[in-house]
Amino acid sequence: MKKYYLYIDESGDHGLVNLDRNFPVFLLCGVLVSDENYNIIRSTINVVKRNFWGSKEVIFHSRNIRKCNKEFQVLFDLDLKSKFYEHVNRIIQDSKYRIIASAISKEKYIKNYGRLSNDVYELALSFIIERAVFCLDEKKDENKQLEIVIEKRGKKEDKKLEEHFQRLMSRGTAYIEAGRLADLKITIHFKDKKENINGLQLADLVAYPIARYVIEPERANPAFEVLKDKIYSKGNKRYGLKIFP
Length: 245
Description:
Layout: E1 2-11, E2 25-34, H1 35-53, H2 62-67, H3 78-94, E3 98-105, H4 106-113, H5 120-137, E4 144-151, H6 155-171, H7 178-183, E5 187-191, H8 198-215, H9 222-227, E6 241-244
Parallel strand pairs: 1-4, 3-6, 4-5
Antiparallel strand pairs: 1-2, 2-3
Helix pairs in contact: 1-3
């Protein structure tokens, strides 16, 4: 059986009450990768961690890296920062995986559906699972298994998302019948950030540039240029970037 992972992280706040006009989207980002390719990615990231921090225990977090906070204060050294980004960009560009992301445009969503409609996190997850299934359909392996890995948010939030996932598995989605989901033997696991899972950290690193692209697609975005070819595509369409509504 061929095993695949879907590591999922978020960018932005999924709440609809207080809107940040400078960041008016919620984006859920998935990194879809086979078991063997993930082992390579995990090892490569650990090499970078050891080279720059002397330990694989450091946890890459996009915001802390951008702000040079905590362990990443060493990146105030511009020469070191340049070398670090060179290594990270090479991992993002050269590794074998696919990005599947879903962005909710909050202002449009509220206008169309109101503030008290479906949970946007659950909605975005549904979109990502759909696109992941379509992507895996293109793989030649007959027996495939998909394990979804999501960072823990809290007992209440995780329980609610687990229930949503179980509903998806039993009912299917608007475009995928439950049987197709069952064929992939999909499971979902919630992991703590402290568990230092490099797949979740890769999803975190690529989520923010994609969100910035959704907000301002015409603005210069070097980080997005690095990762854009990893977004699941069909022809010239970025099928792995769902913007709703």
